[in-house]
Amino acid sequence: MGVMDGKVVLVTGAARGVGKAVAVEMARAGAAVVVNDLGVSLKGDDTSDTQPAEEVVAEIEAMGGRAVANFGSVASWDDAHAMVQTALDTFGQIDGVVNNAGNLRDVLFHKMTEEEFDAVIGVHLKGSFNVSRAAAPHFKMQASGTYVHMCSTSGLIGNLGQVNYGAAKMGIVAMSKLIAIDMQRFGVRSNAVAPFAWTRMVSSIPAETPEQQKRVEGLKKLVPEKVAALCVALSAPASTVSGQVFGSRNNEIYLFSQPRPLRTAHTAEGWSPEAIIDRVFPQFENDFYPLHKSGDVFTWDPV
Asked: How far apart are CA 248 and CA 240, in angstroms?
């Protein structure tokens, strides 16, 4: 008996990396899995290849599990609904969604084009909305269901050259929390996970300086299978967790803070711009966040 016995889960971007690890672990835990993947490059703009998703299905079936491939694009409203329909047609139900599909268009902000911004927002943020929304009526009707949305420390903390990606991922954090609020009355849960794993999504990180090379070597130790266990746990009926933001970094699991007021400044007569500059900013200065990047915060070797 696995923790996901009798459940059906749709995993997007499930042919490689974290998505594949999640799909396989879901199957190992007893779930039937819709393995969605376009089979495109990291940029997501070339010809689709069905083979990677089919290979994951074959791997799951070889270990005695149930799976079906789907090759739709999360960026398409119609394709997202077709993914959910694939689960219903093949397995008769849909119980969980793992929004993992992604792409990258890394470039410094002052050089970023509209297409480079829209392409990343369209897959990560809009794609996560499309698939989540497609499953929502079924979750509501059956009074149960789970969402796991992949976010990133690129949004939670920051990284160079990823304005589009970080904005999309922080949008996903907010979306996950608000889905949890809206769907709570129907017994539906939603959480976000920041995965630390060496996959195609992080293999483009620069390794030109000694410091960058050291960071990359550390990242290569992070295996996607470690992320999968957390995703399964959050999706399991035995869990009641909702509206939270987690991180998974090899054998470490993090619970991230969510924005709350740190300091307050008040004056009976109201604030002028001059008074804010002279009094409020100096008062708050010790609590200002530095311009850290993810690598500045996670400085220790993964365990």
From this structure: 19
Candidates 80, 60, 58, 61; CA nearest to 70 is 80
For 50-100, what is each residue's pLDDT tens digit? 999 999 999 999 999 999 999 999 999 999 999 999 999 999 999 999 999
Q: Which of 147, 165, 254, 289 is catalytic?
A: 165
Domain ranges of the chain: 8-259
Q: Strand 245-249 relative to strand 252-255: parallel, antiparallel, unpaired?
A: antiparallel
> Is 165 a residue of the active site?
yes
The number of beta carbons lying within 10 Å of the beta carbon of residue 211 is 10
The answer to whether 31 touches 237, Cβ cutoff 8 Å, is no
Per-residue pLDDT tens over the stretch 172-197: 999 999 999 999 999 999 999 999 98
CB environment 62-84: b (16+ within 10 A), e (fewer): eeebebbbbbbbbbebebbbbbb
Assign domain 8-259 to its CATH superfamily: NAD(P)-binding Rossmann-like Domain (3.40.50.720)
